[in-house]
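Good morning N.,

You mentioned wanting to compare the apo and holo forms, so I went ahead and generated the holo version with beta-D-glucopyranose. This is what I fed in:
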Amino acid sequence: MHSLLNDTDWRIEESGFDISTANVLETLLTVGNGYLGTRGTLEEGFKGERSGTYLNGVFDGHDSPVIDQVNAPDWLSVVVHANGVRLDVQTCQILSHRRALDMRQGVLWRETLFADAQGRQTRIETLRFASYAEQRLCVLRVSVTALNYAGDITVESAIDGRRFNLDRFPVYLDPPQFAPEVKWEKWAKSLHLRQVAATTAPESLYLEMQTIGTGIRLGYAATTLPSVEPLRNIDLRSHERVAERMEFALAQGASVVADKFVAICTSRDMPAEEVEDQCHTILARHTAMGFEAALAANREVWLEKWADCDVVVSGDAAATQAARFSIYHLLIAANGNDPKANIGAKSLSGEGYRGHVFWDTEIFMLPFYIYTQPDVAKALLLYRYNTLPGARRNASANGFRGAQYAWESADTGLETTPKWTPDGKHRIWTGEEEIHVSADVAYGVLTYVAATADIEFMDDFGAEILFETSRFWVSRLKHDPARNCFVLTQVIGPDEFHEHVDNNAFTNRMAQWHLVQAARIYDEMAAHNPAALARITARIGLDATEPRHWASVANEIFIPFDADRGLVEQFENYFTLTDVPVTEWDANDMPCYPPGYDHFNLNGTQLLKQPDVIMLTYILPDEFSKAAKRANYTYYEPRTLHKSSLSPAIHSIMGIEVGDTTRALQYFRRSALADLSNNQGNTQDGMHIASAAGTWQALVFGFGGFRLKHGQMSFNPWLPPDWSELRFGLRWRGNRLSVRISHAEMSFVLSGPSGTQETVRVGERTVVLNAGRPSSAALRMES
Ligand code: BGC
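and this is what came out, ligand included:
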């Protein structure tokens, strides 16, 4: 199986088993296809594992304070016994253990050499994938070789519905220090599943579970096909678990190979009564075609995806690997076929943040999809459209008009932010106060339409989002008669160290921009598609005077600004707070909290968790001059602790824009290695998927210098001296653009129907691109 793998620059590898990093590896080695994700746990499990399969959009709130992305039944489980000894990393001696995630074809390979107390050596080799060609299919090949003995081998292949989600963290040690084998057992757990059906018919196993609160049926049908006829084959059924056990007698040196196929369907996608039949149909089709056919079909889809989104850094293999790692995880995080599912903050690779959806989607992840797979971007935005009813309920529950997107959103769009930290010690206010998310969603809609020219999406869905959220803003904004302006009080900006602040510049400026854009779209629709506009206005009862009101309120929103220094003030009175210097950095080169400070007592200081004003100058590039960007970067960068993984990539991008290239490179590495080196210390909870997307943005928008300026593609690249070339692809208005940047030149190939023409800006020049003909522009980079 090893020979099936691509070169090492397409791989993430593990060598040896170490329990202290095993849960981090489980996250990194997740396989998936947007419909589901399965953590990279060993097939047989181990004490201390944190295994999980997450089905996109399957949430349940039973037994937990807020709704969870359900830790769904396990399809992977295969346990091998050799002469009665269980082959696992704790029962046996491990002579060698290697795994490789092949990112090019989305498969995880493993080889472990076990020895028992009698010195009998058995090799287990496996290959697993969640098929991208048939998203409801998971496949696992297991090969068992009796290396230096002849003996009895049993292979037990199961579907296990006995799952739970982590709920609350125990508070009896501070800081808690638990042995890795038991640390998850210390948590309080939430039960989300109950059994509906369990059968062990001769040709396949079937288990159906149902989420207790939301009532979603999850059906799993499985067959395990051995390469040699077993001596005995026993079906095992227990509560919430079905299995088949096969017994073989192996000669010395002989192997048995078993191919496990699992079909997974849910009543989210089909009527509940069809789930079982569909599982059997998919399973029968793929078992008939066999392992090689499933693998080839999966590979083909992966190759197509990579053709659109690979990023290569010549001269820095680690950067290429980190880029591919980020892209791989983005590719398995989103389901372009499901307009009712989105991407949780930890994707489908772990339970951190309970699978909830944040602003991370529109501001961090969406650009990757918009510019490489616009159909996936559209599905992600349709989730926002489909959760508008929830957003309307949030607004009215809070006493406002229109629609207010949840800071943390799940299946319905209702606000799902927990009120307390998992240890129960600290109140979380973001659900009440981090309101900028509604403008971020609008920003996502507008960026998608600008890059794709998908006007139909705007007419059918986007405009309604913009209008309803505009109504929220004008009812949330208060008129301050003393200053004759509109204010937003009691908010949290992107920097979550500061709660209950007034007039956060990011929030106010984004709300202002949002209102102006919504009024513009209204006018454009009135001119170009009055019928679509009439439909929306009828549906939401929009009065023709409202858009004028949005535009006039926008004009009068207060934005705190220190004109003498050219600095946007992060929020009112921020500059009066204590200016505490950062004096220490940790082993990963990340700033430490100054002595005496932690996440919860920084309200009175100028220290930031993550960029706030710098973020604003990045996402609204047309609205700030170069001098303003530089002044604000210079002020806020040294005060930022990067305690969110979302932070470094933005500093990398803006560092390049303002000429702080040394730090920009350092920030790029911090972002690129967030999970690969676990530099936030919590990769075991799942991928920092926004940071992965930030890494892609740092390559394309930072080093590639790409911005959408006044609706046009513009590039201002900079490469570090030892990067000889940066290559990436972009999708633009239905066509593909491949981009190459060296120190001397930037070149483009536009593909699309002949006659297609585009213009882009490179620095101060305009370059005309004609489909099928390469174009280039000379560059002069400062080092
Ligand atoms: C960050 C937020 C982010 C959330 C989920 C928090 O730590 O401060 O900006 O949305 O994590 O990734």
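The pocket of beta-D-glucopyranose is lined by residues 345, 353, 358-360, 494, 496, 609-610, 644, 646, 690 (CB under 6 Å).

Happy to go through it together on a call whenever suits you.

Best,
F.
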